[in-house]
Amino acid sequence: MSVMDTLVSRRTYRRFAQKAVPQDVVDDIVEAVRLSSCGANRQAVRLVVVNKPEAVAKVQPLVKWAAYLPPEQGTPKADELPTLYVAVVQDTSIPGDLATDTGIALANMTLAAWDKGVGSCIMGAIDRPALTRLLALPDGVRLCYMVALGYPTHASKLVEMQDGSVKYYLDENRGYCVPKRSMDEVLLKTL
Fold it and tell me: What percentage of the chain exceeds 70 in pLDDT?
């Protein structure tokens, strides 16, 4: 698959098969973050892998799903939950633009996962204080995002934006439809 094909097909997924992500795939996901570009080569992004079923179950009530959809449509059912979470944290003792470095690491992570058929959902609507305690994060480390991962059980596709709405929605098969702006709207000018 070309890079552009990967970028088109790597969408957010929120319903997963109850199949564990193998350790070699988890290792590739971590390696993708380790290899991420970052400002001044600071390498301040850290990860906590949560893949034991009892730990995954403890994370689940501390994250929120699909803000644009009603809970009964956007929240996965018990047999659709992710089998893996990765906490993306920043070492705050390292100065610099950690937000950009974290964004690059998230892109690398989700692309590496998708290369192995593992879908992802980057979650910012999370209970940071409770997750920080649950994950036993040390002082000087700040939790930024949780990423839910697993083998998707639904489709997620790009659609043309209608009436300026960026809100995603479900189609008749419960697949995600993700509106995108047109190229003419994104590209302001070429000089």
Answer: 100
For residue 147, give the nearest of 99, 65, 84 by alpha carbon: 84
pLDDT (tens digit per residue) in 6-39:
888 899 999 999 999 999 999 999 999 999 999 9
Sign of CA dihedral 122, 126, 128, 132: negative
Instruction: Write the DSSP assignment of the chain as a string of letters.
Output: --HHHHHHH--B---B-S-PPPHHHHHHHHHHHHT---GGG---EEEEEE-SHHHHHHHGGGB---TTS-HHHHSPPGGG--SEEEEEEEETTS-S-HHHHHHHHHHHHHHHHHHTT-EEEEE-SB-HHHHHHHTTPPTTEEEEEEEEEE-BSS-EEEEE--TT----EE-TTS-EEEEE--HHHH-----
CA distance 45 to 160: 34
Q: Which residue has the tokens 């097909």?
A: 9
Please give the distance of CA 189 from its chain centroid, rounded to a whole number. 31
The predicted pLDDT at position 95 comes to: 83
Measured distance CA(164)–CA(136) in Å, rounded:
42
CB environment 79-110: b (16+ within 10 A), e (fewer): ebbbbbbbbbbbeeeeeeebeebbbebbbbbb
When pLDDT is averaged across residues 98-121 and rounded to a whole number, the result is 96
